[in-house]
Write the C-alpha cells for this entry.
Amino acid sequence: MFKEKNILITGATGLIGSHLANRLSEEKANLILVGRNIQKLDSVFENNDNIQKVACDIAVSLPDNLPELDYIFHAAGPISGNDIKQYPVNLIKANIFGLMNCFEFLKKQKETTGKMGRIIVFSSATVYGINKQDKDISIKEEETETADSLDFIQSIYSESKRIVEVIAKSYHKQYEIETVIARIAYAYGYTKFAPQTAFYEFIKKAINGEDIVLNNPQIPRRDNIYADDIVSGLLLLAENGISGESYNLSSNGEEDNFKGMDEMANIIVNCVNKKLGKNIRVIEPENKNRKPGTMLNNSKIKSLGWKVNTNIVTGIEKTVEKFIDLMRK
C-alpha cells in the first residue's frame, strides 16, 4: 500500500512520529522526515535511500522543494507539561500554523498538478474534556459538547486540538482536501527523546533507583494505548478512513489499558525491580479516592478492521526494557 509513496511526517523524532517512520520505512515508502533539529533526526534515524531528513520549523513553513505528496502525517506538537506551562504560544503555533501550512501545500498541489494528497491529522483524547460524571464513561466521536475550563492549564493543549479539528474539517469542506482525524488516546512506548510527562519521569526515577512518590489521592484512570497499536491504526486510517471523519484511536479499556498513573507506576517499578534486581517502591497517599475516568469508544475504527493487540503490562515492560538496554550500552 505505501511502497514508493511520498510521505511527509512532521514531528518525526517524537514518540508516534518515530514509530510511524520506522514502520513506513520497512514498507519502502519514500519518507520526508521533518523536525526542528537535524542532530535529533540523525540520532533517531539511520541514513537510508528512502529517507530524507529535513530540519525546519513547520509553524513557519514546510521544507522547500518537496515532491508531490501522497500523504502527510502531522505529528508535530509539544506534549510535555513544561512546554504547556512555559511555552504555550509555541504549542499553539506548532499545532495550528503547522497544520495550516500542511493544508495549504496540499491545496496548492491539487490546484497546480491535480494530485490529491491525504492528510492524517493528530488530535487527542483531551478534546472531550475532564469527566464530570460520578462514574467511568466510554465516549463516542460525536460526544464533544464538553470542554475544559479555559482557566485550566491543560486547556491550552486541549483547545488547540479542538481548533485543529475545526481547521481540518474546514479545509475538507471548502477545498475538498482528503482529511482524516485521529483522536489519539494516551500514548506510551519507547522514544529516544522522552517528553516531560509523568510516565517517562517515573521510568527515569525507577531506573535511577528512586522511589516514586505519588501525592494526588484522586488519580483517575485513563485510556492508554501502545505506540505500535497507534501506528497500525494510523496506517489503516490513511488507507481506509472516510475523508472528513474523526476516529477515536484508543483502547476503550481493552487489553487492560484503562489504568491510572498510580497503577502504571506500579507496573514500571515491578519491571525495573525484576530486570535490575532493585527494591524500589511506589509510595502512595493513604486516602486514595479515585476520580472517574474516560475511555474512548473505539468501535468506529474497529469497523475498519483494526484491533488493540498490546496488553498494558506487555507494553510497559517493552518500553522499560528498551530504556534499560540503552542505558547499559
